[in-house]
Design brief:
Two copies of one chain form a homodimer. Chain A is α+β, with helices and mostly antiparallel strands. The first copy, chain A, has a three-stranded antiparallel sheet. In chain A, strands 5-6 form a two-stranded antiparallel ribbon. Chain A starts with 11 loop residues before the first helix and ends with a strand. The first copy, chain A, folds into two domains: 12-89, Winged helix-like DNA-binding domain superfamily/Winged helix DNA-binding domain (Arc Repressor Mutant, subunit A, Orthogonal Bundle), CATH 1.10.10; 100-142, no CATH class. Chain A has six helices and seven strands. Helices cover 39% and strands 17% of the residues of chain A. Chains A and B meet through α1, α2, α6, β4 and β5 of A and α1, α2, α6, β4 and β5 of B. β4 of chain A pairs antiparallel with β7 of chain B. Chain B binds a DNA duplex through α3 and α4. Chains A, B: Residues 130-150 are annotated as: Disordered. Chains A, B: InterPro entries: HTH_HxlR, WH-like_DNA-bd_sf, WH_DNA-bd_sf.
Chain lengths: 150, 150
DNA sequence: TGCTTTAGTTGTTTTTTGCAACTAATATTG
DNA sequence: CAATATTAGTTGCAAAAAACAACTAAAGCA
């Protein structure tokens, strides 16, 4: 069995799955995002309940994809921390999208949702939406996917 | 080994991963979305290159989560097709988010990106962004995640 | 009726995961 | 500064999941 890889599908969604299409990868990123962008190995093991060998592997992958970087906690020290890169931070809308989606269809209404506030005024953010170039909200039926090549 | 499940993490992102946190699930959804919302078993096997047993399992899961429904192609017939539900369609922003994210950081610029057009005027849609209640684009540093319970 | 298509199921092999124990280097504390 | 604790992994093993191929049964079609 060859390691699961979707390069036969040229679609960028498939290619994204190659990189972050595994639950633990997304959860590592979630953890970093909610922690302000940095995290330590053992802290992630504890908070996520992920196996150490799996975390090791996922972090390596995320590092080679330049989604996180590994650097000393303090200048010159040798204790490391993992830090989201700009590329990693740009997955935040997707993370928020998952949170909002789940909460919209949440099966257990006892638990209250995870909300996201604008730090400036403490107002909740808008639900993630697809917008036309001039700002109209678009539904699935309004959107035409176009693959330019081939 | 117990089946991977993230219910110990109450976070809605983790709970989403329980449902669609596996690459093939997302790719099945992508395929349905790009095909207008419906698809047949064999067609998915061929287009995705997914193993039949795995597709069977993923579709069952998506069905129990009411992300897709299974129904006869024509009234009364017994040939089935899988169809995105409203809950499934609401993952489209996330799908678009993945496509845009990958294309923004695309390592192989030869292949051109997957773009999404507004059917009304054929203009490309906006990049997916997080917006404040009054419509300002927010970056990660502007957003405060708040978990209401506990 | 006979051939083809569809939508799976079953069995086997290979990979990946989860878990626990271990390690080596670095920090902390008395 | 010696002893202890913490950190960031690595290794080995058992179990689960994935890939692959072959098979099946019902439906559709000619």
């Amino acid at each position: 069995m060859v390691k699961n890889n979707f390069s036969h599908l040229c679609c960028p969604v498939a290619r994204s799955m190659d990189v972050v299409g595994e639950a633990w990868s997304m959860l590592v990123l979630r953890n970093l995002m909610l922690a302000g962008g940095t995290g330590r190995f053992d802290q992630m093991v504890e908070e996520l309940g992920i196996s150490r060998n799996i975390l090791t592997e996922r972090l390596k992958r995320l590092e080679t994809e330049e989604i996180v970087s590994k650097q000393p906690v303090q200048e010159g020290g040798r204790r490391m921390e993992y830090k989201l890169t700009a590329k990693g931070w740009e997955l935040m809308p997707i993370m928020i999208g998952f949170a909002q989606w789940f909460d919209r269809w949440r099966p257990d209404p006892e638990r209250s949702p995870l909300t996201f506030l604008d730090r400036r005024d403490n107002q909740p953010i808008q639900p993630l939406r697809v917008l036309s170039h001039d700002g109209r909200p678009l539904g699935p039926a309004d959107i035409l996917p176009v693959s330019d090549d081939q």
